[in-house]
Amino acid sequence: MQANRSKHTATAPFAAALAALLLAGCVVQDQRPMQRITAERATAEVAEDELLDVGVRLFDPNVPESEDEREKRRIFAEVRKAESRYIPVLIRDTLESTGQWGQVRVLPADGTGMDVFVDGKIIESDGRELRLDVVVTDAAGRTWLRKTYEGQADTRAYKDVVSKPRDPFENVYNTLANDLLAARRALTREQRVQLRQVSDLRFAADLAPYAFGGYLAKDRKGLYSPARLPAEDDPVVQRMQRVRERDYALVDTLNEYYASFADGVDDPYTNWRKYNYEELEAESQAKREALTRQVLGAVAVVGGIMAGQETSSSAGSAAATAAVIGGMYAFKSGLDKRAEIKIHSESLKQLGESFQTEVQPMVVDVEGRTLQLKGSAEEQYAEWRQLLRELYEDETGMPAAPGVAAAGAPPPGRP
Amino acid sequence: MERTSRTLAGRGPSTEKAAMRGLVSLRIVLALACATVAGGCATTSDTSSSMPEPPSPSSSPSSSGSPGSPGGSPSTSQSPQQSPSQGGSPSQGGSPSQGSESPAGDASGSAGEPSPPSWPQPAPSTQSGESGQGSQPGSTGAPGGEGASGGEGQGQSGSTPSTRSGSPGGVPGSAESSPGTQGASRGGAPAGSAPSGQPGGGPATAEDRRAQIDRRFDETFAVFDERMRKEQETISQDRASRSGSAPGATGAGGEAESGSGDGSGLEGAGEAGQAGNESGESGAPGGRGESAGQESGEQGGGGGVGGGTAGGSGPSTVPADIPDGRDDDIVARQLREAAMKETDPELRERLWEEYRQYKKSTS
Questions:
Q1: Where are the strands (E) in A91-176, listed by range?
Q2: Which chain B positions have a beta carbon within 8 Å of A377's beta carbon?
């Protein structure tokens, strides 16, 4: 009787461990489908002088320099570069769809000229999980938010191939959009109106610091505010507005580049994420199964040995032997599963390399076109700077003081 | 004595007449001389009235500058010579205008330094003194004309202090560039005309300059706008061709791509099949798959992974007992792809058999 009790006591922990393992497996499977988060849309028209333009800059791809590290974390440099352009386009689409903002544009990493700027860094992106570090600032120098956004893929997005699929990480983008909206609401109306003015003045001060540098004030915290506003009929202001329109056109064109890139990369990227997700899931499943089998096998072997020692009947002895043999077999099958894990791992590598090869020319193309356009635009800007200077000197009869340039504000978005 | 008188007497009437003629001519010469002197005095007094204190440097240039022409002409030749020196060293100027020009003169010094005696130098210095435009490379040429105006001013300042009044007068007119031409023509005239001329030319030139700046703005805007227009046109063409290929492929469905037999076609077929299994709409997804395949022919390797049951006919036809392949690992996928790609029915069946065996062993 006591022997039986001790046997029960000995097997109970193993049974509990087994149950725990099985339950763990079930819990993972029950994670999806997940609840959808929607971005809050505007229900009333936002006052025009409060409509803030948002620039979503290209994200930091965050590619480790070490090749070992890249391999270990399964990071493919070109895939990350593509993502660093693709994700901002999705964020832009999300923000634009809410109707809460003015112009929403994807900007180069050093892009300026907008009221609000969204910067980000990709921490993790593999089709199953997305993790982004996001910082939102404004032209006045305020930091709206600094937050890590993460989410698991909504697998419905991978299944829906009939219509334009919802992005598997739309929840992440919608959450960001809602946070951005909340941050904007935290500003007073005056602050929002001033923000637009500051943005315009910083743009102007960047081009003609001698003329517009004095219009901006910077407090001890480094926040900009309009000290005064230039006269609308000032010829320099009028020309500046025309330059600003060209700047918008440039931003629009660059934005179109990125949008076109995202269009092109959309299908293969979705496929990559989908198959990557499947492989990751299969790998995780194989890992779980391998572990379960090994643990069960070990339990069976140990249990069989113990039972064999304690039993006196031949039937009990036979059962114990069977348990030991079964346990060994289970343990071996667990080891075999490890080989399957390796296959999945190899498969993930192949998928990444394949997509990387495919997307690389697209990244190079969009990068090249962007640089080319920016380069020629820079030349034009240099000429406009000169013309504005001439105009200013002509108007005022005073030389454009070079010292003011130093005091002039950097373009909006640059600290 | 007698001899002398005789001689004189002997010459008698002719000598007397000659003497008389000599006296008359002497008187005429004297009269002319007086008249000339008087005229000269009158001119000088005119000049001196407006320029009370003729500075000494003016004398030497004037004498050397205008050898044969008296009066006002020296100032013309004087001005070009003197103005460079003053532009180069503002301290010489002595006139307020030069003093104020000096900072800008430095700014435009790059233009003036290479050819100190030339015309362009004073002009930028004068102009930049007023508006600081001397730094602009393009405007250096225009101020070259202003050199004449500078010359004019210098001429005045060189001969008389009227430069002070003259050049301040010129300052408001900031656009001394055009007066440059005026100055050149006026240079021949007495220097006194300069003060009134400079301010007169200024405003018109300011408008001209602004118009010129606006023209340049317009030109550069037009170039920029054109570039942007072209870029956006290119982008929309790219996008149109991309979206244009997709609907075309949609029409084709899975069947068309199954005939292509390449990796990209397989991807389409795979997706079509998968979609067909899941949603029962195999046509459109087939097109989707094909469009992706068309866009990037080389993507078949990666993109084609994990294809499902094919919906079309031909080599990519999948036997009924073959699962949809969603849980395929890399080996199974490769077997599936190879089987779908195979056109030889016998070989294809063997590949499918291989696939079945493998799936059994891994399940």
A1: 104-107, 116-125, 129-138, 143-152
A2: 224
Q: How many angstroms separate the CA atoms of B273 and B282, rounded?
A: 6
Q: Report how far residue A207's alpha carbon sits from residue A218's, in angstroms, rounded to the nearest whole number.
A: 18
Question: Residue A224 pairs with which residues in a beta bridge?
Answer: A218
Q: Identify the pLDDT of residue B64.
A: 37
Contacts of residue A162 in chain B, CB cutoff 8 Å? 275, 279, 281, 284-285
Percent of chain B with pLDDT over 70: 22
Q: With an 8 Å Cβ cutoff, are B228 and A250 in contact?
A: yes
pLDDT tens digit sequence for A382-413: 888 888 888 888 877 777 765 444 344 555 55
Residue with tokens 């003497």: B19
- Residue A299 to residue A14: CA distance in whole angstroms: 7
Q: Could you tell me the two tokens for B319?
A: 């036997």
Q: Which of A105, A253, A285, A342 to mutate to test the interface with B (most CBs of B within 10 A)?
A: A253
Q: What is the CA radius of gyration of chain B?
A: 48
The tokens 């949008």 sit on which residue?
Answer: A259
Tokens, residue B91: 């301290």
Between chains, do A340 and B362 touch, taking CB under 8 Å as contact? Answer: yes
Nearest residue, CB atoms, B238 vs list A260, A350, A351: A260
The per-residue DSSP string of B80-119 comes to: HHHHHHHHH-HHHH-SHHHHHHHHHHHHTHHHHTTSTTSS
**What does the block give as tokens for B124?**
């930028």
Q: What is the CA radius of gyration of chain A?
A: 30
- pLDDT of residue B148 exceeding 60, the answer is no
Q: Which residues of A touch B103 (CB under 8 A)?
A: 399
Burial class (CB in 10 A: 0-12, 13-18, 19+), B219: exposed
Mutate which: B126, B127, B131, B361, vs A, most A CBs within 10 A: B131
Nearest CA in chain B to A285: B327
A380–B292 CB contact, under 8 Å: no
Q: From A77, A113, A106, A371, select the one nearest A262 (Cα to Cα).
A: A106
* Confidence bin at B24 (pLDDT 50/70/90): low
CB atoms < 10 A from the CB of A5, how many?
Answer: 9
Best CA proximity match to A204, nearest among A184, A189, A226, A187: A226
Nearest in space to B154 (alpha carbons), one of B100, B87, B109, B203: B87
Among A264, A343, A397, the residue with its CB nearest the CB of B331 is A343
Q: Complex ipTM, two decimals?
A: 0.76
Amino acid at B328: D
The token duo for B239 is 């996008």
Residue in B with minimal Cα distance to A156: B278
Give just the sign of the alpha carbon dihedral B105, B111, B115, B119: negative
| pLDDT, position A347 | 87
Determine whether the interchain pair B302/A355 forms a contact, defined as Cβ–Cβ distance below 8 Å: yes
Asked whether the whole model's pTM tops 0.90, one would answer no
CA–CA gap between residue B170 and residue B280 (Å, rounded): 87
Closest CA to A412 of A113, A103, A166, A194: A113
Q: Tokens standing for B340?
A: 């779908």
Nearest CA in chain B to A359: B299
Type of residue at A31: Q
Q: Chain B partners of A370 at a C-beta cutoff of 8 Å?
A: none
Q: CA nearest B317: which of B230, B259, B362?
A: B259
Question: Are B302 and A391 in contact (CB < 8 Å)?
Answer: no
